[in-house]
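Practice record 12: protein with magnesium ion.
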Amino acid sequence: MTPALQQEIQVTGKLFIGGEFRAAVSEKTFEVTNPARESHLMAVSEGAAADIDLAVKAAQKAFSEGPWPKMSAAERGRLLWKIGDLLLENADELARIETLNNGKPIFESRQIDLPAAAACFHYYAGWTTKIHGETIPVPGNFLNYTLREPLGVCGAIIPWNFPLLMAAWKLAPALATGNTVVLKPAEQTPLTALKLAEILRQAGLPAGVVNIVPGFGPTAGAALVQHPGVAKIAFTGSTEVGKQIMREASGTLKKLSLELGGKSPNIVFADADLDAAVRGAITGIFYGKGEVCMAGSRLLIEQSAHDAFMEKLVERASKMAIGDPLHPKTRIGALVSAAQMNKVLGYIDAGNREGARLVTGGERALVDGKGYFVKPAIFDGVANSMKIAREEIFGPVLATIEFRDLHDAIEQANQTMYGLAAAVWTRDIKKAHRAARALQAGTVWINNYNMLDAASPFGGYKMSGFGRELGQHALDLYTQVKSVWVDLSE
Ligand code: NAP
Ligand code: MG
């Protein structure tokens, strides 16, 4: 085996509860794999309802007793900053673990995910000292003011596509606002979250403030959603599970924020810088192997530019480097699991059967004889009514749809139950801003794709969910407001 394929990793494969690593109450474990090698990486303790209960109790205790509730906002800020620093100090190792476990290219995990996760903690470190209530000029002899308070124990349930980054998106704002957290990572990718547990401890986060319980959705996840001691659930994942969580959370009327799927339109007008738009279309769908909620999976292209654009696009897509995810030049890694690969290949069959034209890719590829790789696939001649244009595939599959004019583009773009993101490519500034207003999506990119920043809100319209993560907006997801009335009469 070449050095690049070596798999040794140093992670404590145990639950992190009350500041300690421990086995599951059931003593069960589950296998975590490397999808690029189809090989076993390590066994991890399998948390279930009893462990979630312990974790919630630890989080409740940490919320009301001990150092956390007494800590000043400035101290909390320094702690978050330190976590960000430690993520950067350990970035090589964390990126390597992420890549081994998820299959994403090391270029992505090291250059994008890790810096973005650290930036999220650094960003929210700055907010801790800037969260405050207000005084309100009420009539009569009263003083009225508000307190902005944390919710208590927050449950975070995250997917496998950006395991560490999604943990950061949930933890940083929850901690900045003084909450405590129980995090359930995705069953496929619990490793960087457990490594993060070590970092939290090293940074000096008090025991129980963050608890991490790997396990399965229907057991550990559902127990967290139903637990009466949990005030809020922050979920990122599929729309189907999002709906289920909403139903289950109603039993205890938990607060919810849901970041769900997408089928985002990437709209290219004939007057765009076509070379930039080709690069944007490639990044839009093939970044992260297409396992990205905001993937530009529907390419809407103006009829008059179609042929020239497709020629450049197909050429570029067919040259993308599929390879060992640990190799720095690899741009297409392995899909996260055999199940995900089969799901993606099933959609490619569906596209063929529905009469779309597969112009490149779409077959399974192997690297050194192994791995759940799929060659970047582009379908031409797709109609919005086809399954491959309607459903979230979550893989490297692009559906190309033609349009006549701005009106037609917007109509087709919005013809979806989702509304996570959209992009438009044009040199016409009016057209760009008119499109940005008309698109039903939580994020619109003009002449770029996939840009995100910890300071800028992210979230969905329509069935892509609700609540805005990141930026100042996320503070609302993790706080509640209390109105205090003081009688000042003599
Ligand atoms: P998923 O089932 O929605 O998983 C997301 C998270 O929810 C995981 O931690 C999962 O646990 C947990 N979960 C599942 N059922 C639950 C329940 N009843 N109660 C509480 N938590 C529960 O997504 P997936 O199975 O990983 O992927 C399926 C499809 O979802 C993908 O093909 C893709 O289309 C979509 N997806 C979207 C996003 C996004 O960012 N929008 C992310 C991932 C996947 P387990 O890991 O044990 O299932
Ligand atoms: Mg699942």
